[in-house]
Amino acid sequence: QMQLVESGGGLVQAGGSLRLSCAASGRTFSSRVGWFRQAPGKEREFVAEISWSGRRTSYADSVKGRFTISRDNAKNTVYLQMNSLKPEDTAVYYCAAGIGSFDYWGQGTQVTVSS
Question: pLDDT of 31-70, one tens digit each?
């Protein structure tokens, strides 16, 4: 089993920045990790993903150029740096990990962007 714990969420004004962290414990963290988000009344959506090595990343079009995903495998932690935040980025952000599919999920952290 792997446990994932997100942190770093909060309230920020539009145009501001936040850095989310996803800390893993339990089994090895040698898996791809993704960030997802779910806004009230909406379905969960993909935000960003990073490979185990960190060499490959992908982003949703809505966050490209504003968000950056990175990882520190020595610390078993993946980060999501979010810049130029918009009110439409308001959501609960979840990290997920897995070798193939995303089998493990965190409990989420709330991000609220005020206009």
Answer: 899 999 999 999 999 999 999 899 999 999 999 999 999 9
Q: In whole angstroms, what is the distance from residue 11 CA to residue 77 CA?
A: 22
Tokens coding 9: 């969420």
CA 91 to CA 9: how far, in whole Å?
10
- For 73-107, what is each residue's pLDDT tens digit? 999 999 999 999 999 999 999 999 998 899 999 99
- 48, 67 Cβ separation under 8 angstroms: yes
Instruction: Provide the pairing of β-strand 109-114 with 10-13.
Output: parallel
Looking from the CA of 67 toward its CB, the CA atoms found within 13 Å total 27
Pairing mode, strands 91-98 and 104-105 = antiparallel
